[in-house]
Structure formats: structure tokens, C-alpha cells
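hey so i finally got around to running both of the ones u sent me last week. sorry it took forever, my laptop kept dying halfway thru and i had to restart like 3 times lol. anyway pasting them below in the order u listed, first the sequence line then the C-alpha cell line for each. didnt double check formatting much so if smth looks off just lmk and ill redo it

first one:
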Amino acid sequence: MVTTGTQQHTVDTPIAFQVRPRSLSGFFGQSHLLGADSALRKTLEGGTLHSMIFWGPPGTGKTTLATMLAHQHEARFEVRSAVSCGVKEIREVVAAAALAKQQKTTTVLFLDEVHRFNKSQQDAFLPHIENGTIIFVGATTENPAFALNNALLSRARLYVLQPLSVNELIQVLERALKKLEAKALLLPEHLQTLAAAADGDARRALGLLELVLDACANQQNPALDRIIADALGGQVRRFDKGGDEFYDQISALHKAVRGSDPDAALYWLCRMLDGGCDPRYLLRRVVRMASEDIGNADPRALWTALDCSAAYERLGSPEGELAIAQAVVYLACAPKSNAVYTAFKAAQAVVQNTGSLPVPKHLRNAPTQLAKSMGHGSDYRYAHDEEGAFAAGEHYFPDELTSERFYRPVPRGLEIKIGLKLDELRRLGARHNKQRD
């Protein structure tokens, strides 16, 4: 059997809860926060308590650190989740904390998923943190700059937690096996597999271990490789749809395409698909990349993106995902230009700053005799009747504006030829205006 000895985990209590460390000697990870002279370590070792926010992915130790704080300082430990409680319950906790304070007892209020509270709900904590009724410890997986009140952030110190490394997760698993008195039929390579599959999440690693131990129970010769493969079935990498992780990964994909690195672009594409991202969202972003970062340096990039979108709609997943990969690779390898994107933003700024300038009369539509009698369309020069189909010197902006120059082709791809063509047309226009003057 894999597990022997007197200490067996119970059916009702998850291993992750049973083996949660009560002191730093059993805690692994977050070395950047727990250095010898760090504020957090000093607090965990008995220094002055202060309110704090733990920000990091799931399974990185937020709840464990809060538990340690309360245990080390022999404080009342109130645990709530913003998912399931409201301000009324928080007020009850604060009232009890005020009574405890009169008895010289500190209360640590740990609020998980604090970002689930709206800004007005978060305000309910402020006076009680300020006067020391509670030591507030909030945990969040969302960026506090967006999810939390500035007033709350100013009263609590922010600690950013990182995913655990594979080696740190192996240490977590080894400690759990020792604490559970589980015999070492799990070889180092088995722990390596479980740790890698946990994707930086200690809770997930312990959950996988629990599945393996349960499957091995009462088996004389368990087939560990098969059992571990079954336990890992359906595991996906960490991916928070709509959260920071989501936008960080799409940002990495976009920047890899912009940076002409098809290999990195494919990596981030596969990460997002593997995490469950909607392929249609990725296709929309790919179409955007084609216009924003390639533009007229290679117009085929936009055609490719649109064709691959159509191919995905016809094939669906998983076959159609290859078309997304084709588009991403093409875009990454294409010549780059943000000239159209820059020109568009510059034109928008001029429109916003100059208001509703009237269309010059020679450019106005003249569908009726009345419009013609008012001079609409008069003196307009029809370009196709001019030499080279170009009306040199014609002015197409409102009269109040000089000829603005928004679009500046880059010396890459097709925009080399576009730039040369525009330069030639500007020379012809300047020559015409000089002769007219």
C-alpha cells in the first residue's frame, strides 16, 4: 500500500486543510516576501501587526499566511468570504471585535475574495481599521489598483504573491506525505509530475496528491503511473477568463506578434487555447493586430486574418484552431507598420479638437438644382479627367484647416511603394500651387 501508519486523512477533511502549516518552517514559496529583514516575516514572527492585502493567484498561500498571523499573535481569527457575506455580517464581526478589544484581545478579520465587495462595501472597513478595532487581511486574485478602494489600499500594506515553482511544490508534497505518514511508493518522478501539473498552485498539487492516495488505498500493488495519469485527466493551466491573467496573456500574444517572434506568439496562443479561451475572441484580436501592427505594409495580413476566421467558423474546434495558428504565424512574420493606426489616432484628435467644421462648397453633394444654385460642387475638379487621374493642388480639408498629414508610411513592405507614390503626388501638388501663385 502507498499509505501506512496511524495518521490517515479523513474522507471529509481535504488534505490541503489537514497539512496547512502553522509556522514558517512548513511554508514554501514567496521567498521574495519572507526575507530575514522583511516586514511580513517580522510580523509573522511576532512583530507589530498591521492590516494588509495579499494579491496573487490561487493556491499561493494567502489564507495560510493569514492563519499564521492570527496563530502567532494569539488573536481571534474571523474568516469570511466576500462571495457569501455582506456588510451586515461584517458589522457583526466588528461589534464582536470591539468587545474583544476591551478585553485586550486582537481580532484578525480575513476576507477572502475581497474584490467581490463593491467600493461602498469596502468603505465599511475603513473606520475600524483606522481605530484598530480589527486587523484587516484581504485576499484577492484581481489587481487591487482596479478592484479596491484607494482609501482601503492606503490603510493596508500590499503584498504580491507569486505562483510556486515546481521545486517548491515538490517540497509541499513531501511535507504532506510526511505529515500523513504516507510511505514513499511515490517516487521523485511522480512528485515531479504532480507538481508540474499543479501549475504553481499548492492547493491543486495537494488535491492531486489526495486523488492519487485515495486511488491507491486498499490496493496491494497499485499501478501508480496509470493512477497518476487518471488523476491528471482534464487538468488545465491557470487561466482567469476576464481577469488579470487573461489580459496579461493576450498582451503577451499581441506583443510577440508585433515583435516578429512567431514561436513566442504560438506559445501564448496555445496557452490561451489550453486555458479555455474562446477562439473567436482570439480571432477578433488577430484581425485587430493585422490592422494595428501591419496595416498597409502587407495588406494580405488582414485578408489572412479574415480568411482564417472564416475557416474556423466552418471547421470549429479543434480543427479550426490550426487556422488561427496560421494567421498568428503569418502576422508575426509580416513586415510591420503602425502608420495607419497612428494616422487614425491623429485624425481623431484633430476632429475632437476642431469640432464640426463645414464641408467646403466644392466638396459638397449637389443632388438638386437648389443645391447647385447655392454653389454646392462648383469648381470641383474631377480627378479622372486630370492627367494621371490626379487633381494636383486640389484641397480636400475644411477651409479652416491646412492640409494635415496624418499618414506617414514606413520604409517596410508595400508601404515603401505607397510612400514613394504619395511623395510624388505631393511634389505635383506643390508644383501646381507654385505655378498658380
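and the second one:
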Amino acid sequence: MPQDIKTALTERLGCRYPIISAGMGGPARSELAAAVSAAGGFGLMGMVRESPALIEKEVAAVKARTNRPFGVNLIPSVTDPTLFEAEFAACLAAGVSAFCFFWDVMPSVVERAKQAGCLVFYQVGSVADAVAAERAGADVIIAQGVEAGGHVRSRLPLSALLPEVVASVKVPVAASGGIADGRGLVAALAQGAAGIHCGTAFLATPESFAHDYHKRRLLEAKSGDTVHTDLFVINWPKGSPVRVLKNSLTEAAGDKLWGHDPALMKREVIGEEAGSPVHKYDTNSPLRNMTGDFEKMALYAGEGVGSVTEIRPAAAVIERIMTEANAALDRLGILRK
């Protein structure tokens, strides 16, 4: 097994390796979170806008697979308040001990999670939000650069954002955005991060709940094949950017990749998930339980997608990242504990 790299993040999270798998809404369910945690990382499940019943089921499934710590990702500011209350209550009732929150910083939500004895991660895209999240009580800050796949909060590249966030907060910082290998981990550590937060690398695993079509597209993609846009905005607030693989919809948009208002967009059904429609231009990515025109859906991917060249189990992804990171540190002659 790869040599450990001990950091403030591994100490805080109680995991062996400084790697957090992103709580991707849809793809990151129990199978993926459990696999990452069992392999020594820290797995997050994406339970954004999911029913309390599914949350209860998925949390129980993680606990059945591993006794290692894990967390649940929720996005309070873009979730109907009544549903969010139900989600939050379901998580606590199921024994969730860590939450990751994203988008607008909501101090009251952090306070409630801390009062319940939970660890709190906050994913942010600016120094101001990092400071606000720490002030609210967050235990870990995830600094997300514009290179990240999925919903993107930042307008800055990670190389510019990360050092500023590290200098502005005292809690451990995990770097996120375009990181899919061990060299990315070492680069993040060099800029002061205590670990990394990866989505795309874990999207292309057997344990991911993403549809095989999405996984194949990731393997085919090269660096430069992603697009930053607010085209896929139905179900989210106006002006919410995402990073996706290029497809027929982004090509047809031409230079009109920005300025889309979900309230004005026509609802054209292009798929179905468990009896519910999937609309053209909405934020749903292709999942195992979906049918429809996957090519026209949001194919989330970060700029590190060029490093994803085969489907590997989550444990193998972690082993590869750590092996590459240790080799890079050895080349640099850096002593490790």
C-alpha cells in the first residue's frame, strides 16, 4: 500500500489519506462513498434534493459496507426549505456525523450541525466565503477553483484562490478543481492545502451511480474538452455556472453560453428518472436509473478529465493518486513523517 501522507486534514477527519471524494448529487451514493472511506479516503454522498427515505436507505447502506467515517453533501440555499429540513432531520436520525455544505454560506445551518455534534465541511469559491464559513464554525474549508466540474462557485483558478484561502483561515483547507492525480495532490500541498477534494476522478469508477454513457464520455475526453457555462440551469437559481463536457447543446449555443434564465427556458422532456421527467437544459446528469437522450444532458467534468483514462475501482483511484504523490515527493527529496 502507498505510504501515508499525514496532514491536518487526515488528523481532523480520522482517515488515512488526504483525499475527499466529492458529494456529487446523483453519482455519489452509498456505494461510492463507502468504497472511498473503506480505502482510506473520506467519502461524501450527494443527497441534494433527495427524499428522507432515500437518505435513510443510503446512509444505512454505507454503514453496512464500512465502519469508516463518511459524510453527506447538502445544499441548503438551493433546496426548498421544507425539503431541506426533512433532509437534515433524516441525516441526523440516521446517524450522519459529518456534513458538507455548498453554495451560499448559511451560518445558521452550520450552527445547527455543530450543535448536533457533527463535523462540517464548507465548499467555497472565494476568500470572503471561506472566512464566513470558518466564522460560522466550519471545521474544514474546501476551496473550489473554476477548473472544477459540476456546479462551480469560483471565477478564479485554483492556483490563485487556494493560497489566499489558506492564508485567510486557520482550519484545514482541501483543494478542489481539476485535480485527478497524485501530482495535483502534491501541488495542492505545496500551496498550503492539507488535502484534495476530487469529483471527476471518482465519477469514472464502477461504484459511481453515473450512467455508463457519462463514464465513457469521460474516458474519451481530453484536456480542453470542458465548457464553463450557465446553460444547464433549470432547477437552480439564475446565474449558476457549471462545467460540463462539450456536447451538441453547448456547440449549438455558440457564443451564447451565458445569461440563461431558468424561468424563461422551455421545458422539453429528454429523459426520465424513476417516473420523473428530465428536461433539456436542467442540471441532471445521466444516472444508472435514467433513460433518455444522454448526449443532451449535463455531462459534468472538471478540467482534469484528461487524466482519467480508464474505469478503475475507487480504491484503485486512491492508490494511484497516493503512489504518484509519494513518487513526486521522492523526486523532490521531501521528507515525510
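quick thing i noticed on the 2nd:
The chain has twelve helices and 14 strands.
anyway thats it, ttyl
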